[in-house]
Design a protein that fits this description.
Layout (H helix, E strand, L loop, with lengths): L1 H12 L8 E5 L23 H10 L3 E5 L5 H13 L6 E2 L23 E3 L9 H10 L1
Helix pairs in contact: 2-4
Length: 139
């Protein structure tokens, strides 16, 4: 299971880098919710285990969640309201201000922000992966 390898690597390496957190970028459409391809916001239906997994991630002290979306500002506001009412908190939107370019380091994060885990249907994420992640986090 590729997603578990990524998550296990994130949790095993972040402290070695001297960080307090792992950073997870998570898409909305066809990842958290099935896309309606509508410009109009409505309460969305979560994929099975998405909501519960995001709630677990929100509760962890070693995770920062980044909402990774191409949604318009007004839509993002509606989504964030929905997530907060469901006990899900995203720390950042489409960026990670905690990891910046340091000329002594090996990465340039001016245009590509740093993440440990990326969940997006465009990255190969499947909605059935939520159950795998949920079970891993519950261990």
């Amino acid at each position: 299971m590729m997603i578990l390898k990524t998550i296990e690597k994130a949790f095993s390496s972040y402290k070695a880098k001297g960080w307090e957190y792992t950073f997870w970028a998570i898409d909305i459409h066809d990842t958290i919710f099935k896309s309606t391809y509508s410009a109009e916001f409505k309460t969305e239906e979560y994929y099975p285990f998405a909501k519960e997994t995001l709630q677990l991630l929100t509760q962890r002290d070693d995770v920062k969640l980044i909402l990774f979306t191409c949604s318009h500002s007004n839509e993002i506001k509606s989504y964030l309201t929905q997530f907060e009412s469901d006990g899900i908190h995203f720390d950042y939107i489409n960026g990670n201000p905690e990891v910046v370019t340091d000329m002594s380091g090996y990465g340039n994060y001016d245009k590509k922000f740093y993440i440990n885990v990326g969940l997006d249907d465009k990255f190969g994420f499947e909605p059935s992966d939520w159950k795998i992640i949920f079970d891993f986090l519950k261990k």
